[in-house]
């Protein structure tokens, strides 16, 4: 298929903001726009207005969840049950296609990110990658054998149960479903709930980072045992804190206690290779190309 | 390929005992033998002596671990680092093939079990299955998209960290690497360590089963979030305790707290379909057939 001259679209559909981008077939971003996530009607109107300026050939969508990502299932293309007002049972793909009828690839924001790191993050193509985002929530995407992991639906590893840090036993956590699951204990809002200070204003020397590092280490240990990945990538605003992954690697080594042979931890528990939170955009664009190629060979 | 008339072999290589079987190409077991696992030389001599009585065409091996299962890696076919005396770095496949040079499929005991349930347990072929064995140790095998899950090596989900049950906080656990990981808290030896009574002699009404059920529920929750499976199967001597899975389902429902849509739990957290601990044997035989077919089309 000739893709030269085609334009690819990316929608990063976050619970807080949408980022839409247009790129050429070599993944050079031509134009990008960001706007606040409000109600689905207004938000989709802005999204379609952006893409209607271009002759876009395919769009990759990395969405906040939970969402229906299995083609053929009734909920495919929908935001499913979300606390975000107005978005439960919203037909995302259907409403986009009603305005712009091009091939789309619809997946989670973290699947898009892990795919971006897989395609452009200089890893070998047979590698198993796990991508965590620690921000407003905690999401996890996994790629193995070139495919996203997930049977009935996408992983929900943000809600694993952790052993509490001794200095954190009285903190109830902020997850509205589970209280003190991973998301309840290590998302951005958990920092403000513990300290009364917004996460970005907490000093690097605050002991809360030792607690977060312990939970990151447990999260890394859990996916190590489940998937035996080649790399575990921590993105999102919380993970970017200087020194945090270094602390987590130390805790992780203690958890392993020389049981599993592991790569050098500095190259195993890592930040994204793609800078400026770009993993999801590049992942979306690569998935748009995938959708375009799939539609063409039909 | 004509498989009619061919004989298939199964080796269930357990840390306590070996079970070897011969079956016809329709998976009817013709002969079976069991013996104690001693040192590798004597144990392999008994194994090869059994198979040399037959004109076996291929052998499936489900072994205790950790083992090297990735063809092309240096440790493929080996038992790797095990506390079991004499078995560390033992070349299992090499020593078998030196005596009986037929195609083999070498995987973990729990991968063999999950494959048996996948092939013969009346599930649909696109389903994602997780198989736990709770016995002397805790092992986990996962199949998704028809393939075993595991990147650099096989899963080691037996060593996940659990939140302790309030009535179990002072129990240190029995895992020699991690103390109170899943294996340290829910394997057979943990029962004797807590109560002073061998697991099989503990009464059904003992409160220790509430503790074990809580850990089984956490294990099921962890793999639910990681793999979004269609079914989670609990085999092994501990899991067989009457009423235990029923208690675990109740705890599991509380953990989910209506977050994820799930199938009826009675059909989700289940015992093996294949009776009398036969999942591994049938899995080995099916994997032997797979190895034979693969070798033939080369």
Automatic annotation (TrEMBL), chains A, B:
Keyword Zinc carried by entry: yes
Which Pfam families does the entry link to? ROK (PF00480)
Gene3D superfamilies for this protein: 3.30.420.40
Sorted alphabetically, the keyword list is: Magnesium, Metal-binding, Zinc
The UniProt record lists the EC number as 2.7.1.4
Which cofactor is recorded for it?
Mg(2+)
Describe the reaction catalysed, as an equation: D-fructose + ATP = D-fructose 6-phosphate + ADP + H(+)
Q: What class of enzyme is it?
A: transferase
The record's listing under InterPro entries reads: ATPase_NBD, Carb_Metab_Reg_Kinase/Isom, ROK, ROK_cs
Stated family: Belongs to the ROK (NagC/XylR) family.
Q: What name goes with this protein?
A: fructokinase
